[in-house]
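for the writeup, i need someone to sanity check this before i put it in the appendix. the sequnce is what the collaborator sent (i think, or maybe the updated version? ugh). structure was predicted straight from it, no edits. if anything looks off just tell me and ill rerun, i have time this weekend
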Amino acid sequence: MSETVGDFLLERLATWGVRRIYGYPGDGINGVMGAFARSSNGKRPEFIQVRHEEMAAFMACAQAKFTHELGVCMATSGPGAIHLLNGLYDAKLDHQPVVAIVGQQARAGLGGNYQQEVDLTTLFKDVANEFVQVAMEPAQVRHLVDRACRIALAERTVTAIIIPNDVQESPAVSQPPHKHGTVHSGPGYRPPRVVPHDEELTRAADVLNSGQRVAMLVGQGALRAADEVSAVAEVLGAGVAKALLGKAVLADDLPYVTGAIGLLGTKPSWTLMQECDTLLMVGSSFPYSEFLPEEGQARGVQIDIDGKMLGIRYPMEVNLVGDSAETLRALLPRLDQKSDRSWRQKIEGEVAEWWNLMEQRAHLDADPLNPQLVFHELSKRLPDGAILSADSGSAANWFARDIKIRSGMMASLSGTLATMGPGVPYAIAAKFTHPNRPVFALVGDGAMQMNGINELITIAKYRDQWPDQRLVVLVLNNRDLNQVTWEQRAMSGDPKFEGSQNLPDFHYRTPRSRRCPRTSRSSRPRR
């Protein structure tokens, strides 16, 4: 039997499959921290102490991205709650299920210390607009936890629960009273099997079968539909471009995969979109319509689990609401095998030329080092099953263009928000969720100085929990906010404003003589 609301909160989250909660302590969540301290039966989530609440939200987002499960972060009231927002917006805009649990020093009118308090409901009403609630009584907590978790998973979004500290320390009410009989509220959420109607699938097949030059664009919604995407592309003789969040959908060594699209995209992806007569979008909300076919050039079919995302980037002829894998499997028997492979051969030729060009560019001389060469050589050396995170900035350019993802790898970054700072915390969450796999964070020196350096402390704190301690942080140290420098020159033509763009030098790698001694080489930190 739970002792306090804090105890019950952790146990209820555990029934939802939550295994860890990322956060930073504070007096507004002392009641929950006490419950963590009393966790001795292994049935409660583990508390992961990060260096800053923003990092906790980034890690919760990455937890969802790398597991397709619920991510949970926690912060105290006032300043701690405010710090969560950037990471929560990252999750919201990339459609990831994350629950934020926030403390408050006391319920209104009960004599709390309001020095650090802000209007938390108003603070979170945009980022957690689907569900943000204050637990005013212990009897509410079970219902609020269940609703927050279920809505986050069902809507693939951010929800928030605000729990005053005096409620956290109150006796738990595990079964709230009901005036009209007993309500059995059980945790758990299983995504429904969503498949379009047969007549809509037939309409979509007619469009795709009539096309002679089919292009596919896949995003993160197709991450669990790799086999189906590949099978459809093979039947249609299509080339496949990938939105940045969908980089790991298909391996880049497949000859018909054109790679990234958009500002960080490839020439084959541009050719694919500019010359196709039919477009099939799967699980992507790719926002830059100027990189899609000209309106009227191509007939379009789009598949997305969220009907709100259909037809907003390109005027599609057929819009299919459905799970990517399920819908493609239902569509496949209706598709005709295309005997004319000239379109596919053209795309494959462009892809081969592109990778040759990338190799040539990687070997161009640069002082002191060509960053493309670093990524080109890294790509060949990445271990099987590696998980990659990238930060925003020029690191994302080379990640998008020069890293060849292989089958079985995972990769992500801040896609829609494109915020600086998630590279290292994403990698830490990847290591917690997949402790037996090698993880690589690819970040610029700007992002590393912003928060990555502090999170090396978190790595040092927890690394002994990971059976495979390969967590590599690659820092592009050019002492310049490089992406912004490019953008400033492109927009105004002015020379670089050094007061804005120059970064202080920093020795990111600890000299061997200053490292903590270890019993073996394999146990040393990898940075």
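The longest strand covers residues 98-104. The chain has three domains: 5-168, 198-350, 363-523.
thx in advance!!
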